[in-house]
Amino acid sequence: MKRIAIAAALIGLSACSATSPTGRNQLLMFSADEMRQMGDQSFAQIKQKEQLSTNKAINQYVQCVTAALTKPEHLRAVDDSQQEQWDLVVFDSDQVNAFALPGGHIGVYTGLLKAAQTPDQLAAVIGHEIGHVLADHGNEQVSRGQATNLGLQVIEAALGASGSQNQGMIMAGLGLGAQVGILLPFGRQQESESDVIGLELMARAGFDPAASIALWQNMAKASGGNAPMEFMSTHPAHDTRINELSKRQPEAQGLYKQAQQQGYQPQCKVPS
Ligand SMILES: [Zn+2]
């Protein structure tokens, strides 16, 4: 009981309300610096744990898509975020998974390429992940605690951020739940918001936004088995997702055409 009171008091003291890139009110408890630190630590931890891909063609391919998406002019167009430096690591793993973390760290698992089959589809996933970071969803997750015991533990862990137990909680809050076995999925609003940001980002970068629909269809197919797929377990799909992406196509296609005219035509070669 006392722990709950302390956590509640701390939330009250340090919470600040902010507005997401799509205009939604957010409760954020942590500074950008604190989030960056959590992102840096989590990324270091994952890199230690997972095997890095040494496949040159795959690395070049994923890097090509990532570099096109993270051009500062595109990031600035979708959000006033200061995050302009991004680094990428490709993990050699059958997991259908990808993530992006505060501090500008992107991880892509080679298994993802089974669901994201073209450069445009891959851009849809990575754009969606970047959307979670630009919209401060990790901050929101560790701040809000989702009204559960688990959430409370996340808050406490984040407040006293040290030790390997706490690290797992923070990582779950940042969307790495599948990696640490603590599921704390993003919420429906966060998923929609990342879809919107990702769609605009990919279109501005010269990737065909129509591919976002095919991508989510592939994801749904890939997760049709018994076990929930890694990506879908922390990024739950909702039945309106494809409808919303369809509704936004005309606007996104306009941005895509404009990007092509401006010379944003990424040539990323799919590894054979
Ligand atoms: Zn997501």
User: Fraction of residues in helices?
Assistant: 55-70%
Order of helices and strands: HEEHHHEEEHHHHHHHHH
Ligand species: zinc ion
- Order of the strands making up the biggest sheet: 3-5-4
* Proportion of residues in β-strands: 5-15%
**Structural class estimated from helices and strands:** mainly alpha
Number of strands: 5
| Terminal Cα span | 58 Å
Largest sheet: 3 strands, mixed
Count of domains: 1
Number of helix segments? Answer: 13
Assembly type of the chains comes to single chain
Q: Ranges with pLDDT <50 over ≥5 residues?
A: none
Which whole number gives the mean pLDDT? Answer: 86
Which descriptor suits the 3D outline?
globular
- CA radius of gyration: 18 Å
Structure, explained:
The strands form 2 sheets. A 3-stranded mixed β-sheet has the order 3-5-4. It has a two-stranded antiparallel sheet with strand order 1-2. The N and C termini lie far apart (58 Å). The protein has 272 residues and is mostly helical. The chain has helices at 2-14, 32-49, 56-69, 72-78, 119-134, 137-144, 149-159, 164-180, 188-204, 211-222, 230-234, 241-247, 249-261, and strands spanning 16-19, 25-28, 87-91, 98-101, 105-109. It has 13 helices and 5 strands. The longest helix has 18 residues, at 32-49. It has one domain (35-261). The protein binds zinc ion. Residues 128, 132, 186, 191, 194, 235 line the site of zinc ion (ZN).
